[in-house]
Protein: acetate--CoA ligase
Organism: Candidatus Brocadia fulgida
Amino acid sequence: MVTGVMKSGEIINKAPVVTGLVNYEQAGKEFSWEAVKKELFLPDNPAKKANIAYEAIDKHAQSWRKNKVALYWEGPDGTRQKYTFLELKNLSDKCANMLRSIGVKKGDRVFIFLPRLPELYISIIAIAKLGAIAGPMFSAFGPDAVRDRLQNSEAKVLITTQELKERVDTVLWELPKLERIVLVDYRKEYELEEKDVCYATLMKDASDKFEAVGLELEDPLYILYTSGTTGKSKGITHVHYDMISYYITTKWVLDLRDEDIYWCTADPGWVTGTVYGLWGPWLNGVSSYIYDGRFDAAKWYEIIQTYKITVWYTAPTALRMLMKAGDDLIKKYDLTSLRYICSVGEPLNPEVIRWGVKVYQLPIHDTWWQTETGAIMIANYPCLPIKPGSMGKPFPGTKAAIIDGKGNELPAGQHGLLALQPGWPSMLRAVWGDEKRFREYFSINGWYATGDTAYKDEDGYFWFVGRADDVINTSGHRVGPFEVESALLEHRAVAEAGVIGKPDVERGEIIKAFVVLREGFAISKALEEEIKVFIKHRLAAHAYPREIEFCGNLPKTRSGKIMRRLLKARDLGLPTGDISTLED
Ligand code: WT7
């Protein structure tokens, strides 16, 4: 039996769009990747081959945009810097020469373990210019996570800071393929060890003239590691041809235009920070703002006010934290520069969208994609009404479908596996060194299987249900944990919620909720009852959590997803498995 618990009647209509993607239906009919390629590539591309760094940086540095600010940067201590496209070209040219001087060649893996410093962005561009393969790693990783990535990729060079290098020191002996460690913040009192070299010294000697290496479009660009259900994390490998997807999705989904000041809050250690933190905006010649600091509601609003951020790409967790920080805080800032907000990474609760409309006078546009898809695949567009709780519609030119285990397409309303028809430019090209795990993605009759379950409604909107292994079956009813979590969040006492299916002799599974209360609410039996009744009435009689456990926080990945798997393992006293992506 299939139940679509989400109320699908609600829609948010918006003002008509004047630029960007104006007509979704028509764009789909006329769409061709070849046409996008022609739009992006200048006919006079000097290399005659391709390089994303040329298209994103060098091209603009040779155009009227040369003195336009490409990167506004702010450090945790308030230090501010800005770089024009021309400055980024010169610095990345220098950096490419510097890397070449220590032996980096086309195809070599260069991993980066840095906070969101300007050098992180400059090295990513430089690595692409050389045709080497970048491996950005989140600066909160511990030694084991770093070791696994450097080992699996057989990285030749690591770019890091003295402080972060200390975390690598304990595992260095396990990394014989690593030849050089480039220290970005080298100070004199530090004794360089055998493999260490100093970024600043090498940069000083390097020329700032470098011609981006002309590549085949299928040459690899970067590797990002992501967890599967089993085994170690997989090195998802992307190529330069991805840029076709980055360019057009940034333009049509994030709606970026030349005059925008854009802020993507993600770290390049996660795919959002790599694809839409730098490549997407720069391929479109747009100014991007980067904040190398932690989440802080007041600071975030101050950023929007100071930099006059116009387009903001963030995550549901952040939005929920902002919601928790309260509406009074918002009144202290002038946020009128904001014109467009998008979200990614986990289900965006309808409650958060309604709150966005109330406090920012803007709806939040959910976007769905994965490390593997390389770019946004399903989204809410400026020109389409939003149905709160829906991920939106497939990007023009791509086909998304709900399929059963044999690859048959299911009709509207039925829950099934979310699959994509292979062939879009930014699809993963390999799981680094693991052909078998790569093939597994395509094992259902040639579809690319996302691992998510979802359903499609009569209007072609897609609704997220859960990971393929997260859907709860209680007394024969299928219930998506997202729907229950969303409903819980609508209760005035609930700040955060994670929901799992707990094995039950009678019902197969019962729904169990882990709940973090909002400030000012105390745990009590009465409140527990109240929440249960609230959900029973709000959602469905079968979909209320029979068990509620109150907790101080929820285990989350560093990209903000609640780790239901971990909640479940802890609840059942099972081994917790790979938790290398856990937040703390
Ligand atoms: C998984 C991919 C690519 C952005 C960061 C996450 C979940 C992603 C949504 C959304 C519901 C979402 C899916 C997906 N997810 N976006 N809008 N609504 N779920 O990348 O770490 O590769 O995770 O994140 O489960 O499969 P990722």
User: Anything to note?
Assistant: Residues 11-15+42-452 form a domain with the Rossmann fold fold (CATH 3.40.50.12780). The first helix runs from residue 24 to 30. Confidence is low (pLDDT under 50) at residues 1-7. Residues 268 and 274 are 4 Å apart (CA to CA).
